[in-house]
Design goal:
Layout (H helix, E strand, L loop, with lengths): L3 E4 L6 E4 L3 E4 L4 E4 H11 L7 E4 L6 E6 L6 E7 L7 E6 L1 E7 L6 E7 L7 E7 L6 E7 L5 E5 L4 E6 L2 E6 L4 E2 L3 E2 L6 E4 L5 E5 L3 E6 L13 E4 L4 E6 L5 E6 L3 E6 L9 E2 L4 E2 L7
Antiparallel strand pairs: 1-5, 2-3, 3-4, 5-6, 6-7, 7-8, 9-10, 10-11, 11-12, 13-14, 14-15, 15-16, 15-17, 18-19, 19-20, 20-21, 22-23, 23-24, 24-25, 24-26
Length: about 280
Amino acid sequence: MPGERVLRALPAAVILLAAQTVALAASGGLLDRDRAALATRAVGALDDATAVALAADGAIVAAAFPDPGHANRALLRIGSPDRGDPDVLEMPGEVRALLFGDAGDTLYAVVRREGKRQATDSYLAAIEPDTLKARRVVTLPPSAAALAWWRERDAIVVACDDELRTFLLPDMRSGPLVRLLGPNLALEPRSLPNRMLVGKSDAIVDVDLTDPQGRDEIAIRGRVGTPAPVVDIALASDGRYADVLTADRKIARLLLEAPEQAPVTRVAPHAEVPPPRPT
């Protein structure tokens, strides 16, 4: 199973949520407690991280941070919980999302560079964790914000404004272009075939990536409103629930339908994330 990722920047430290969920509020992501502990052990404190990813087996962790000495550069730390200091790779711009390949031998990153005299440049990079070699794979829209795996097609999904772009492994050919209007800010694959949860500016929606495109966009299988943009989604191991983290540092637990039942239904109140405990 491909690695996990967390994404998006929010100010604060690691915060505990619910029974087994940890919000890495600095990166706007959600991880279970064990994986959050692995991440901290491998690459250090995550307070300023803009993106974090773990390999499927937890043996490799990657986290991106702004470079304090350079306004338009990121520092990518790649390490293991069982070894010494992490390796560090300098990358131009901001790393907005990270995702490990299935075997952990490739790390994918959404990189965005703000140009002073040229248009914003956004692209998908592929990085070899062992050698720190990085290469530009494909140019993306400036709005690219999230990464996820489409298991049934062995493809990477990139969330962008108005669309979900897909790239087929191993040669990264362009796959189906899924129209989904408005900002698309977070992604989480469902346990159901070809289904994807997408975080929007005011909702979480459930789509089947193989559904035919409508006149303007793909059909939405389920939707539940949220009072703020959804910046990350974490699916429970049984696939029945999803925790969502919104940009205003609040969380909600959603009950996802069984295949034969009604669409996504919110079952828990939107609860504010508590401030981090003093250290």
